[in-house]
TrEMBL record:
<dbReference type="GO" id="GO:0003723">
    <property type="term" value="F:RNA binding"/>
</dbReference>
<dbReference type="InterPro" id="IPR046849">
    <property type="entry name" value="E2_motif"/>
</dbReference>
<dbReference type="InterPro" id="IPR002885">
    <property type="entry name" value="PPR_rpt"/>
</dbReference>
<dbReference type="Pfam" id="PF20431">
    <property type="entry name" value="E_motif"/>
</dbReference>
<dbReference type="InterPro" id="IPR032867">
    <property type="entry name" value="DYW_dom"/>
</dbReference>
<dbReference type="Pfam" id="PF13041">
    <property type="entry name" value="PPR_2"/>
</dbReference>
<feature type="repeat" description="PPR">
    <location>
        <begin position="363"/>
        <end position="397"/>
    </location>
</feature>
<feature type="repeat" description="PPR">
    <location>
        <begin position="130"/>
        <end position="164"/>
    </location>
</feature>
<dbReference type="GO" id="GO:0008270">
    <property type="term" value="F:zinc ion binding"/>
</dbReference>
<dbReference type="InterPro" id="IPR046960">
    <property type="entry name" value="PPR_At4g14850-like_plant"/>
</dbReference>
<feature type="repeat" description="PPR">
    <location>
        <begin position="262"/>
        <end position="296"/>
    </location>
</feature>
<dbReference type="InterPro" id="IPR011990">
    <property type="entry name" value="TPR-like_helical_dom_sf"/>
</dbReference>
<dbReference type="GO" id="GO:0009451">
    <property type="term" value="P:RNA modification"/>
</dbReference>
<comment type="similarity">
    <text>Belongs to the PPR family. PCMP-H subfamily.</text>
</comment>
<dbReference type="Pfam" id="PF01535">
    <property type="entry name" value="PPR"/>
</dbReference>
<protein>
    <recommendedName>
        <fullName>DYW domain-containing protein</fullName>
    </recommendedName>
</protein>
<feature type="domain" description="DYW">
    <location>
        <begin position="578"/>
        <end position="670"/>
    </location>
</feature>
Amino acid sequence: MDRSCLCILGFSSKLNTRHTLAKYYFCTVTSKIASKVSEEFTNLCSKGHIKEAFERFKSEIFSDPRLFSNLIKSCIPQKSLSLGKQLHSLIITSGCSSDKFVSNHLLNMYSKIGELQTALTLFDHMPIRNIMSCNILINGYVQSGDLESAQKVFDEMPERNVATWNAMVASLIQFEFNEQGLGLFSEMHELNFLPDEFTLGSVLRGCAGLRSLHAGRQVHAYVMKCGLEFNMVVGSSLSHMYMKSGSLEEGEKVIKSMPIRNVVAWNTLIAGKAQNGYSEVVLDQYNMMKMAGFRPDKITFVSVISSCSELATLGQGQQIHAEAIKAGASSVVAVISSLISMYSKCGCLEDSIKAFLECEQEDLVLWSAMITAYGFHGRGDEAIKLFERMEREELEANDVTFLSLLYACSHCGLKEKGMEFFDLMLNKYGLKPKLEHYTCVVDLLGRSGCLEEAEAMIRSMPIKADAIIWKTLLSACKIHKNADMAKRVADEVIRLYPQESAPYVLLSNIHASVKRWQDVSEVRKVMRDRKIKKEPGISWLEVKNQVYQFCIGDKSHPKSMEIDLYLKELTSEMKLRGYVPDTAAVLHDMDNEEKEYNLTHHSEKLAIAFGLMNTPSGVPIRIMKNLRVCSDCHVAIKHISEIKNREIIVRDASRFHHFKNGRCSCGDYW
């Protein structure tokens, strides 16, 4: 080959190299521009700027109609049906309505916005459907509460994937068909579908719903076999299952074994402690969570505020309320509901009303919580008015609403109204009463003196009676001094819980009230023989963010001598105003002077004396007690409220008593 040819070839080679470089440069720049365009477009869509995204990138969208999916997804958080329909029209005119990818996004949008009928019409007209189309429809039916139709779609699917099984297992467990959900999981496993973290999370929730430790441990073994025990979703679900099933130790062990903890793990631990009654530990865990650098969310606040309710620690509750406001969680329905309950249980009904009125959402949970709060404080008329307002505003009452109403009626002696609501629940709303509803009705009938009717209801109801419903009737026997029925009812409670002290104590009190001293002795002998001890009365109050606790005859307090002297002077002043100690309420074998001393040193009286001694004049005193207030203390506190010109709020095991100017909010009906 000659030089000229070489020169020509060399030149040509350089030209080719330059052309290749230019082409590479052009492609790189184009790719960067396209990437930037795509990023800007996605950014606008994620922020909900749908119209701006469409106008700015119209040509790109019509050249690649799949970009419509980003716009469609943006309609869901805003629940913007009108924009969704406009996009649907544009998709049809652009000729890409037959695209499975775009159609599935439309189907998902209609389902999630709640337009199930439109979604069904679209599904029926889709020329090509795939597994994803059916999965979306299943979730749409579940969201609308139609589990039967979701099951039908699932059953008719010729082909399924893991997401299909996940959707159906989760749906059954969501609707509390836990056994069926676990059965479907077994079927999935037999058909060689490999469960993922979402499947196992749902299955563990099903085990928790059944309180089945045996099934839960089997799933735990499977989780370890799959190597998913340290997965955040699975680990938290495992812990939740153990705690809900009563094995707090195993649940805590799972959380502690996780190499990394997130907010969900902390929430699981805190909720587990709260549900198992470890309210003080919940507050400690909450502080530890914050110290570890995690920000509490709405789920955290619900558990922590609920624990403040149980402890009745108003100061801490107010502090956590302030933290919820700061975190932006105070407008969440579940948090507001917890606040209504917390303020109510701390004796601050006005703050409950304020929290309720400040919420702009008309949510059934909130209304039910407020009805309960009114009932707890003996304001049954306000509870009924709130329910009537609910009906006018067409809020559909549920079983929780009716439980709140029946509770309110039973605590205010509104028998006719309560029975009317029970009938309304059955016949107008078609709701099936639970054991709790029957217990409220028995309480309502029993308190109003219809003891035979109350007993007949327990024996004829379609649900197996528990100890609580029998104890409710036993308390009514005490009110109406029906010793014969009391013996029969106490036997039912003792048969269920032979070592519980309450039925023995109540029965002994009833026999004493009708002067059946031989029967009183027999009950006491049985208690001694069976080594059953009466649960001690404990009262507590919060002063300057510190909780002080008192037991009957308590001398452990550093100021016990001052409290004793204060009570002695107070009792003398009460006697001048007509107070006569009810020594018949003391069942111990002792003389009258000892009985009177015993009455004077009941835990609530000690707590009230301490409160009066350590709080400024005019400030309400809030006392909590683990048992019901006895008749003598009820009379005494009325006198104290008048003598000291103080409002004394007492929360006992049953309700709130607001003592003011010598009167009680319960109207002596408790």
